[in-house]
Amino acid sequence: MQVAWLNETPEASVVLVGHSDGVGGLDGNIALSRQRAQSVAERLVSAHSVPRGQLRAEGVGYLAPVASNAPPEGRALNRRVEALFVNPG
Q1: Helix/strand/coil for 71
Q2: pLDDT at position 1, please?
Q3: Which three-class secondary structure state does DSSP give residue 26?
Q4: 21-66 tens-digit pLDDT
Q5: Consecutive H or E run containing 27
Q6: What's the Cα-to-Cα distance from 10 to each of 4, 20, 26, 55, 75, rounded to whole Å?
Q7: CA torsion angle 70 72 73 78 (round to 10)
Q8: Whole-angstrom Cα distance, residue 17 to residue 35?
Q9: pTM of the complete model
Q10: How many separate helices (H) and strands (E) can be counted in the chain?
């Protein structure tokens, strides 16, 4: 993530999208993936001084896998947070 760019571009923002593997129910995985994204947001605020107002955390659970959830390696790849940069100008 380009933290310097965020700090230099106050009109820009980031949507952090948390993901989970396919183990468990959808509601629980959405909550877990949102918590994962919120943890990343908190780290950006506390360790990199990114203004909280530039960050939004969402969770989509297991709805957008990047790998098969069958093997452990695939499940590990699916547990992630993606950053989507939004620049209104």
Answers
A1: coil
A2: 58
A3: helix
A4: 999 999 999 999 999 999 999 999 999 999 999 999 999 999 999 9
A5: helix 26-48
A6: 11, 30, 35, 11, 35
A7: 70
A8: 10
A9: 0.92
A10: 3, 3
